[in-house]
Design a protein that fits this description.
GO terms for molecular function: metallocarboxypeptidase activity; zinc ion binding. InterPro entries: CARBOXYPEPT_ZN_1, CARBOXYPEPT_ZN_2, CPB2, M14A-like_propep, M14A_act_pep, Peptidase_M14. Belongs to the peptidase M14 family. This is Carboxypeptidase B2 (plasma). By secondary structure, the chain is α/β, with parallel strands linked by helices. Helices cover 39% and strands 17% of the residues. It is built from 13 helices and twelve strands. It has an eight-stranded mixed sheet, with helices on both faces. The protein has a four-stranded antiparallel sheet with strand order 2-3-1-4. A hairpin with a 5-residue loop joins strand 5 and strand 6. Helix 6 packs across helix 13, helix 7 packs across helix 13 and helix 10 packs antiparallel against helix 13. The longest helix has 22 residues. It starts with a helix and ends with a helix. The structure holds arginine and zinc ion. Arginine binds next to helix 12. Zinc ion (ZN) binds next to loops.
Amino acid sequence: MWFFLFQLVLTCLIDKYKCTTTPDQVFSITPRLQADVELLKNVSSMHETVLWQPASPDQITINAEVHLFIPASSQKPIIKLLQRYDITHRVLLANAQELIEAQKRNYSTDPRSSTSYYERYHPLEDIYHWINKTSREYSERLQVILIGSSVEKQPLFVLKLSGKGHQPKKAIWMDCGIHAREWISPAFCMWFVQYSVMFYNQHSDITEILDKMDIYVLPVMNPDGYKYSWIENRMWRKNRSRNVDNACVGTDLNRNFDANWCTKGSSDNPCDETYCGRFPESEPEAAAVSNFIRSRKDLVKLYLSIHSYSQMLIFPYSCSYQEVPNHQELYEIAREAAMKIKIHYKNNYKFGAGAKSFYLAPGGSDDWAYNLGIDYSFTFELQDNGRYGFLLPPSHISKACSEALTAVKSIALSVIKKR
Ligand code: ARG
Ligand code: ZN
């Protein structure tokens, strides 16, 4: 009996994970052979894992890093399988639960905490509260517009930011939180709105932008999914629509737009993370955004969609390998924005046309907006580069948002100069 206890303590001292249950982890795995690719595709669909990168198993290719979330329960069989096939893995995050708790914890109001409201992540109810409060506080600059509601009847509120002058102005559209688990994205929309109202008439760049263009900001485009990612499953990506004849829930809102809808790079299987939905704009969230932008299509000159992670600036097309007519122009605008991030924040952003430089992903909002006639259309993939992925600690929010803000202002000023 004593000997047994002694042995247990000893094992604990040597390997502390043996005493506790193994935590959920994230692995980075780089397939070197086609056989490895096939195995990884199987692993990511068979077990209770969640693929972080790439977005869907069919985009797994030789020599490209795969980031895979592996819940404690699937770890042993998966490690065994990887060993059997001689595939090496690197533990990207040794304890996902700890990071998830840190992302939620910091939100409690500690009066001594030096971090501001904008350096924390916020649950959906708080964001609604914030929208209400901020729009009343800055009623001169902000107007709330209800553009529709989600599957679960959550309101979709857009904040309209404007400077001086009342005539109908050209406009910028920006949405955040299309994908539920990308928490840094809604945090950025909030950061952007707060910056704009605080520094209008103080910083010349944002003053010029707001005097020349209205900005429509949708802080959470997928409220049901966002809420679900706080309460039930931190790794949730899609919205929460039910499917007929299928128990799997959710459509990928960034595959639900009318741009080569449901072709290669998305899935017609409701159980997949990139499920395109029943038809283009079948989802109320995508329909609300499309209808709103369509109704102002002659005013909206710049479309911005904010995602994470991988530090990229993407422009059309993602739905085909075709080059758009103003490719060079978009390339230059993106290059300049990335350069400013490099100069001011010493961080690297890749940039390029979606499909050609990165991967095919049809049905995206950026391509749809471009085809509608909005010649300047960009998708941001914010921080980080895979160190924490979706579990970016709150302490990184400030830098991630500041650098993205610099890029957004750069792009907006470039577009203003064009006209
Ligand atoms: N990570 C984003 C997604 O998978 C990329 C979006 C790029 N644009 C696009 N139309 N797919 O949705
Ligand atoms: Zn995304």
